[in-house]
Amino acid sequence: MIVIDQVSKQFKDKKQLVKAVDYISLNIKEGNVVGLIGENGAGKTTLLRMLCTLIAPDEGTITIDGDNIYTHKEKVRHRLGVLFGSETGLYNRLTARENLEYFGSLYGMSAHDIKNQIEMLAKRFGMRKYLDRRVEGFSKGMKQKVAIARTLIHDPNIVLFDEPTTGLDITSATIFREFIYQFKGEGKTIIFSTHIMDEIAQLCDDIIMMHKGQIVYEGKLEELYETENSRDLNYLFTSKIVRGDLYV
């Protein structure tokens, strides 16, 4: 269970303070696939960066299974896999295998466990043909597969993705969605932001709608459809912004 309690974060922009996340509270259940939507600047990426301990909130707390993620950073980080959009985190001069070995070692994995995990991920993601090639020559889709494998090398139970299909071709985006189905079947908790409403509709159990750092809806996708008597997510999101809805 992820518990976000009255979390806020602000930044300076041209000598002005901008509140990126404005005292939000959420409970995210284990094993759920959660979609995070909102316009650019809504606070989605800031929220995800706080969840993965890259930045700390100004106020409020975040706990995972009862552990405060800022006082137990190392313990929490071993439970998390993180991929931020086009930031693959890969080293171009290394092969795909060498990249995975390096990141596995950062998590304190043994050489034996790293080798077994790489073999499993290479088979699962169809990477065997280019596992020992340098990453610098890879297509975007190939890099994305290695980046997802890098995210999963230590077998995390919570995975955070920030707009993971941005810039991918149809085939690569479809492969990513298939990965989400697989992760869900393994009981992993997935939180991902996207501007593609079809991804939310196809993949998610729950949805979080953000607007100007605040929550306008948080809950089951099917309950949202039923309450609003519509399955058009673009319309539903726009409607909640226009109405000024705030989730309580």
Automatic annotation (TrEMBL):
Q: Which PANTHER family match?
A: ABC TRANSPORTER ATP-BINDING PROTEIN (PTHR42711), ABC TRANSPORTER ATP-BINDING PROTEIN NATA (PTHR42711:SF5)
Source taxon at top rank: Bacteria
Which Gene Ontology molecular-function terms are recorded? ATP binding
Domain ABC transporter spans what residues? 2-237
**Family classification:** Belongs to the ABC transporter superfamily.
Keyword set, alphabetical order? ATP-binding, Nucleotide-binding, Transport
Q: Which SUPFAM superfamilies match?
A: P-loop containing nucleoside triphosphate hydrolases (SSF52540)
Against InterPro entries, the record matches this protein to: AAA+_ATPase (IPR003593), ABC_transporter-like_ATP-bd (IPR003439), ABC_transporter-like_CS (IPR017871), ABC_transporter_ATP-binding (IPR050763), P-loop_NTPase (IPR027417)
- Please list which residues make up the signal peptide: none
Name used for this protein in its record? ABC transporter ATP-binding protein NatA
